[in-house]
Amino acid sequence: MTAIKKKQHARLINASELAETLGISLRHLWRMKAAKELPKPVQLRNSVRWLLSDIEAWLEMGCPSQKRFEGRKATRAKASRTR
Questions:
Q1: pTM here?
Q2: Where exactly are the structural domains of the chain?
Q3: How far apart are CA 66 and CA 40, in angstroms?
Q4: CA–CA separation, 61 vs 26, rounded Å?
Q5: Would you tell me which CATH number, out of the four given (1.10.20, 3.40.30, 1.25.40, 1.10.1660), belongs to the domain 7-82?
Q6: Are strands 42-44 and 12-13 parallel, antiparallel or unpaired?
Q7: Which of 25, 48, 54, 68 could hold 39 in an S-S bridge, CB 3.0 to 4.6 Å?
Q8: What is the mean pLDDT of the chain?
C-alpha cells in the first residue's frame, strides 16, 4: 500500500464530520453512539473520532450494530490474513 493510500485508509473523522456524512444531527449521532449502533470510535484523550474506513465498511454492511460490525470486521481481517 502506498503512503497516500495508508494515510487515507487511516483517516479519522470527528462527530461533526460523521453526522454530516450520515445526514443526521449531532444529537442523533450521540444517541446512536450511546445505543452502540455505530462502529466503535477511537478515543484520543478528550476527543472521539471514527476511522473513515470503518464507517465505509459499516455502511457497505448495511449499518449493523456495533457488536455485529466488530464481529464481521474481525472475520474479514482473519480471512485476509489467511490468503
A1: 0.81
A2: 7-82
A3: 6
A4: 22
A5: 1.10.1660
A6: unpaired
A7: 54
A8: 90
